[in-house]
Amino acid sequence: MSFRLLCQPAMAGILAVRDGMRDGRAGRPAYGWAILTDSASRRERLREGWRAVARIFVLAVVVDTIYQIIELRWFYPLETMIVALTLAFVPYVLIRGPVGRLTSALKRG
Q1: I need a labelling partner for 63 at 20 to 30 A (CA). Which of 4, 53, 98, 102 fits?
Q2: CA of 10: how far to CAs of 13, 44, 54, 95, 104, in Å?
Q3: What distance in Å separates the CA atoms of residue 83 and residue 27, rounded to the nearest whole number?
Q4: DSSP string, 67-93
Q5: 96, 92, 62, 94: which is closest to 80 by C-alpha?
Q6: Cα(46)–Cα(93) distance, rounded to whole angstroms?
Q7: In the chain, what is the straight-line distance between the N-terminal and C-terminal CA atoms, in Å?
Q8: pTM of the entire structure?
Q9: Nearest-angstrom CA–CA distance, 11 and 15
Q10: pLDDT tens by residue, 31-77
């Protein structure tokens, strides 16, 4: 079950690269920075990011639930949510912004 520690962040990274390149081509600010500083578009940007990683998040929840039942013989919902967020959404947010900035810089230069 340790494949989840590599597979799920990798999938989130792939989606983050795709969306970051779109941001860079469109000239939008870095994703994480826009979430923190632009209160007008914060909600829209969070929804956009959530839509992108929703499948990976659900997959992370399912895989972690199966892991807990097999290994721990019990289900811990809070732990499942923490693991799913850590493996799906955090890599997405951390990768999307720099990829967008890099794409934007390459487009200009």
Answers
A1: 98
A2: 5, 24, 14, 11, 23
A3: 33
A4: HIIIIISS--HHHHHHHHIIIIIHHHH
A5: 62
A6: 10
A7: 44
A8: 0.79
A9: 6
A10: 888 888 988 889 998 998 888 888 888 888 888 898 889 888 999 99
Q: DSSP letters of 9-72?
A: HHHHHHHHHHHHHHHHHHTPPPHHHHHHH-TTTHHHHHHHHHHHHHHHHHHHHHHHHHHIIIII
Amino acid (1-letter code) at residue 55: R
Contact 30, 99 (CB under 8 A): no
CA distances from 21 to 18, 68, 95 (A): 5, 36, 11
